[in-house]
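Late entry, written up from scratch paper. The run itself happened at the end of the previous shift, but nothing got recorded in the book at the time, so transcribing now.
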Amino acid sequence: MARAFTREPSGITMLQRIGTGMFFSIISMVVTALVEMKRLQTARDYDLVDLPSATIPMSIWWLVPQYFLYGLADVFTMVGLQEFFYDQVPNELRSMGLSFYLSIFGVGCFLISNFLISIIKEATSWGGHTSWFSDNLNLTDLDYFYWLLAALSAVGLLAYMYFAKSYIYNRASTISTQI
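Output as recorded:
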């Protein structure tokens, strides 16, 4: 379907695919923040805030939209990154390109997320305030964390778009259309 609109043989370029995934990731974080706000409000409405082990009377179906969007974001981003790191590196360095592709997930998922959580926990528990992260999920401000992630992702998408516009594909067989 995308081919009909873009007139590109693959529908959209690798960089457009990655950018689309980043966009869906932002939307997923926004939806997650909104669902968390709804969960906290439901806990307040049913006086469950001080009962950390109580079950909040919300359906599991509230999680479907955010996980669907997150899965969609992963599909676009991962496929685009794999194509990019395989196709845009010299033939002699393809295995290195694929290892860089995989290392992005290791660094992003573990190193940076742990660092970010540690910084936020220290910053928000400053001066005797309750941290955004607490043992009692009904007293946390995880929605603020998701809003922060959405904002950071939006800044990352803007930076990505700025640099992706000037990227020149390395191979003649690759589509040279820019974002």
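The chain has a mean pLDDT of 90.
(Scratch paper discarded after transcription.)
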